[in-house]
């Protein structure tokens, strides 16, 4: 019994560490994307999906409003036109 309980505790600790690391990395990614958008005047849109949850980041316009990314069809056609087919 003790080894089963120890194994469950180890798994829980490992999961918690992975979630904490994911959270930290997500914050770092958002910060770097924001710096990139500011430094180069780029419109940045990023989607991260993990365990069925989605996190989105969109850069801000010059007026400080969140940039609205194009719809999915426009994105897909843009990739095809850019030679990613």
Automatic annotation (TrEMBL):
It comes from the Eukaryota. Residues 1-25 are annotated as: Disordered. This is MADS-box domain-containing protein. The lineage of its organism: Eukaryota, Fungi, Dikarya, Ascomycota, Pezizomycotina.
């Amino acid at each position: 019994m003790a080894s089963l309980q120890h194994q469950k505790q180890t798994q829980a600790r490992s999961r918690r560490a992975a979630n904490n690391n994911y959270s930290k990395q997500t914050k770092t990614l958002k910060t770097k994307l924001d710096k990139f958008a500011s430094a180069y005047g780029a419109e940045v849109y990023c989607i991260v999906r993990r365990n069925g949850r989605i996190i989105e980041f969109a850069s801000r316009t010059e007026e400080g409003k969140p940039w609205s990314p194009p719809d999915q069809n426009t994105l897909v056609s843009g990739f095809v036109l850019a030679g990613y087919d």
